[in-house]
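User: My collaborator and I are trying to settle a disagreement about how two of our proteins should look. Neither of us wants to argue from intuition anymore, so we agreed to look at predicted structures for both before our next call. Could you fold the first one, then the second, and keep them clearly separated?

Assistant: That sounds like a sensible way to settle it. I'll keep them separate. The first protein:
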Amino acid sequence: MQLVSSVWRAGSGAQWVKIAKSWADFKAADTDYFNQGLRLVDFEVEDGKYTGVWRTGSGAQWVHVALSWSDFKSQDTTYFKEGLRLVDIEIDGGGYAGVWRPGAGAQWVHPVISADDLGALDEKYQKEGLRISVLKVQDGNLTAVWRPGSGTQRIELGLSLERFVAEDTAHFGEGMRLQALEVHEKPVAIYKLPFGDATGWTLANGNWDDPTHGHNQGDPLGWQAYAYDFTHAEGGKILAARAGTVYDLDESSSKNGFNQDDHCNPGVGNYLVIKHADGSFGVYWHMQHNGVFVKVGDKVSQGQEIARSGNTGNSSEPHLHFDSRIDWDLNYSCSNLHEYPGYPVFFQDKNHGSWRPKVGDALATNNG
């Protein structure tokens, strides 16, 4: 059974939709609609079947499918010189498909890149006055097109449906609108377990949907809905779950308390925050006093030793709290315990390509 998800906006004029057609049938329909003054406004390819939406338009249009990357890039270079720009790109079975329409200005296309590569490239292109116009996700990798643009741009990868709705509502209120949307099953950003030797490490509390012990008691929008608590004797080696830049830390606390009436005392204890290339923040809590081995501004690689586990802050036993979230407040302190929502974090370990562990699962780390 085929399922279709759609968005409608106010508009006028003719519109035609063809779903899951062979290339021959799709091309025949496109030629017919082109002659009627219609152009492709959306294009999808899946399992060798083609879906398109045509609306009133004018000017040239070219569609090519099932190209190798070298052939796709060559074709794109030719069209660029003719004043055409990519308005959509699709990847199916290793082949590239694209739609080109009249346009102007710079254009950069990067296929099959990681979330960290996307963040680094976007930082570079934003300085050049470019913004992401097309974003595609396949098998956990990203393909993006940058075109001239301005103003604020937020990239948020791997949100749950509930978190996406909440974030879209918030961004709408900030005057932002969706430019690119992808629905996919395989996670984009793959983390590794935040320790190198699984001996002695167990999961005490999992995500909101963990049937044994889950954060936020079944609320997928809770502040710690996608947090993990890994227990270990004090002094366990903590490794970076993902590469990034040290954004914030505190290793001065030696206090411990659990379920205190005053949550500011002792707070989260010693913490370390690493900003990832896509703008997300990896958060590590409850480390030993003077147990952080990096400083703000340091670049850290995945698997690098960054701290030692402890029992500081609002902690019932020695453990590491880890999550990845959309933001971090540099004023975080006992007078400011605001938390930002987290992302679903899927780990890569010796037995899983992408995995959200639950309480009781064996932890077979491959980090470091």
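The second protein, kept apart from the first:
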Amino acid sequence: MEGLPLARLRFDLETLEGSQVPAYKGDMLRMALLWWLSEFWCPMPDRCRHGCRRPDVCMFGRLCEPPVDPAWPPKLRRLMGNTAPPAYALWDLQDRRGHLDAGAAWSFELTLVGELALRQIPTIVAAVQQGAEQGMGRIRLRSHVRQVVALAASPDSTGRCLAAEQPQNGKMALTWQSYHLDDVILGYEQALAWAQTWNRPVRALSLRYLSPVKIKERGQWVKVPTFSAVMRAVVRRLRILSQVHGAGEWPQAEFGPLLDLAEAVRLEHHETFWTGYSRHSRQAGHYEVEGFIGQAWYAGDDLRPLLPALWLDEWVHIGKGYVIGNGRYAIELAGSLA
């Protein structure tokens, strides 16, 4: 896990004109991001509309549509199927407004995964800036970027501003601020540091599931958020990301004991329910995105060894539709007893 750095970027925007927008904005954000980045990166004269044809040299293919490498461990290839995960995850911050007036403020979060993606932050910001002004999604939502902030590990911190609007030649322009890549990295080191703030056994934990979580355990969709099922999804996601965008497979000697410990964690109470929304795909048409949301409370003898992986996976989500913001959860409470 030490070789899997993340960065959380929050884009703060302002609409240029009023527009109807979907309540769940992750799909709109994904389509727009892929379009903008392909404009910047695709080297093919006729553009690759049905999969990257040169993932060996194209930055878009390496980060947004990475191919499955036959040399990867067979177990991991079975876990990810025919599609390797991209190096990003989007989050609409639960903005469920269906209409944005002209001049309305709105934001979204983009988590980047892996050193290669983090080194492309200036290009990604430039692509979002240019694309937002041209229009986003089928609705052509036009906005301008007011600032870009790298969110910090602590929720109490305002983060580090990477770019912000400033007056230049009589008009406002997005201007880069000085920063070092180490300033924006969130990784396993930061996760361990957060977990070590508890110097006594952590025996109570609450997870708030913010967007539909759809995961499987033993071939069945999980309807009740048992901790073992959730932790298996967390480990699965981190293992795959570590292989595709990190330093290689997360050793079983490290994640195996976490899964064993998760089996002993009790689901004390939950207030979750199954929900969903309609999504449109060119291939499948309209279909329902489903999963459970709500809050669950867990208990065990000492949950501290599980905290780093749980903390890190908050930002990259679990289950189906993680790229567009599904499977997002927050560690709401960690308690310790003497």
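Some points you might bring to the call about the second protein. The first helix runs from residue 26 to 41. The chain has two domains: 6-183, 188-336.
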